[in-house]
């Protein structure tokens, strides 16, 4: 009888451990600012920068209004299985978060903490025309989510939307691969366009 109890107990333990191994959990093991600075860094032909909204968002989209199948199928079509990472993107970005990353115009990005660029879109702000007169090297206004990272696959996912004029903008979910301290762009899925 003791052998039977031990056998049943060990069997239950083995089944429990097997089930736990199949569950996939993601942790953010690379600081958000490290990933964000790598994602934002870039060179513009005019030597300029993009202006980044200081508070995170997934613009034009809420989890209840998004066609998740569209995103999943398009990433899968490109050879990437990212269902759980995409879900985590929305969970990690349920609420807006104030960025803490320092601006780096020389690396292609400026965070609009004082909202001096946002003012162009308020009453009598002058809009895009005045924006480009005052700041010819400011290449649009970008909103972003916080990134999510899967240490098993090395995938990093982020939402990034940029508007460069009244009818010139788009929002994407981008997928990168993080390996050995470097970020490689893999692909992106467009979510909106103006």
Features:
194 residues; alpha/beta; 7-stranded mixed β-sheet; globular; disordered N terminus
Structure commentary:
By secondary structure, the chain is an alpha/beta fold. It has one domain. Helices cover 30% and strands 27% of the residues. It contains 5 helices and 7 strands; from the N terminus they run ααβααβαβββββ. The protein has helices at residues 2-22, 32-40, 68-77, 83-92, 127-134, and strands at 49-52, 109-111, 138-144, 148-150, 155-165, 168-179, 182-193. Strands 1, 2, 3, 4, 5, 6 and 7 form a 7-stranded mixed beta sheet that branches. The longest helix is centred in the N-terminal third of the chain and has 21 residues, at 2-22. It is globular. The N and C termini lie far apart (72 Å).
């Amino acid at each position: 009888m003791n052998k039977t109890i031990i056998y049943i107990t060990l069997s239950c333990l083995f089944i429990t451990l097997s089930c736990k191994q199949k569950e996939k959990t993601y942790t953010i093991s690379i600081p958000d600012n490290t990933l964000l600075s790598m994602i934002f860094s870039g060179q513009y032909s005019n030597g300029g920068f993009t202006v980044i909204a200081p508070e995170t968002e997934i613009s034009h989209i809420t989890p209840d209004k998004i066609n998740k199948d569209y995103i999943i199928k398009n990433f899968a079509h490109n050879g990437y299985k990212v269902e759980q990472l995409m879900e985590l993107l929305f969970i990690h970005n349920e609420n807006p978060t104030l960025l803490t990353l320092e601006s780096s115009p020389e690396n292609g990005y400026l965070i609009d903490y004082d909202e001096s660029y946002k003012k162009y879109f308020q009453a009598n702000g002058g809009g895009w025309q005045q924006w480009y007169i005052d700041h010819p090297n400011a290449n649009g206004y970008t909103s972003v989510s916080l990134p999510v990272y899967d240490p098993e696959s090395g995938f990093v996912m982020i939402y990034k939307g940029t508007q460069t004029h009244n009818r010139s903008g788009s929002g994407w979910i981008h997928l990168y691969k993080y390996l050995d301290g470097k970020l490689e762009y893999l692909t992106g899925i467009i979510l909106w366009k103006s």
